[in-house]
Write a structure and sequence with these properties.
- It is a single chain.
- The protein has 154 residues and is mainly α.
- The protein has two domains: 69 residues; 84 residues, no CATH class.
- Helices cover 75% and strands 3% of the residues.
- Strand 1 and strand 2 form a beta hairpin.
- Helix 1 runs antiparallel to helix 2 and helix 3 packs across helix 4.
- The longest helix has 41 residues.
């Protein structure tokens, strides 16, 4: 059986490593103010620091936690959150952010939340559309389209 403390410490270490990597890699882009305004690495640097500080807090709480092992039902719920999220992230290089986000929303709403088919399809279609409008049109930032879309010429 896996202890709750071990999961808390592992999660805090992983998110802390991610936050540190984001903060360190953003330094190359410049952090602070320049004559043109905020340097491009400032926002990722601050985000990485916030993630790192939150992870250090969770690491300290994990050391102090005296709760026992997780029950099988708790592990099943944890897997129900982790496995779809890992599939979502893993599919992005192949089918892109838009299709992955729609598939993720459809799967989570239908299977985990037991929403109606119509509501699930509505959210699964509107999520990629909203991502497209916000990122591609408003911010003019291209999200990953994946190898599949690349083979179709997008």
């Amino acid at each position: 059986m896996i202890s709750r403390r071990a999961l808390e410490l592992l999660t805090a270490a992983l998110t802390g490593g991610f936050g540190a990597a984001v903060a360190v890699s953003s330094i190359d882009n410049g952090i602070g103010w320049s004559s043109e305004g905020v340097d491009p690495g400032t926002f990722p640097f601050l985000t990485g620091l916030i993630i790192l500080l939150g992870s250090l807090y969770n690491l300290a709480r994990g050391f102090l936690d005296e709760s026992g092992a997780l029950a099988w039902s708790q592990l099943r719920r944890l897997a129900g959150l982790f496995i779809p999220a890992a599939l979502f992230v893993g599919l992005i290089p192949f089918i892109g952010m838009y299709v992955s986000s729609g598939a993720y929303m459809l799967g989570v709403l239908l299977l985990q939340n037991r929403r109606s088919l119509l509501a699930s399809i509505t959210v699964a279609i509107s999520t990629p559309l909203a991502l497209y409008v916000v990122f591609e049109r408003m911010f003019q930032v291209s999200l990953p389209r994946g190898a599949f879309a690349g083979s179709l010429g997008f």
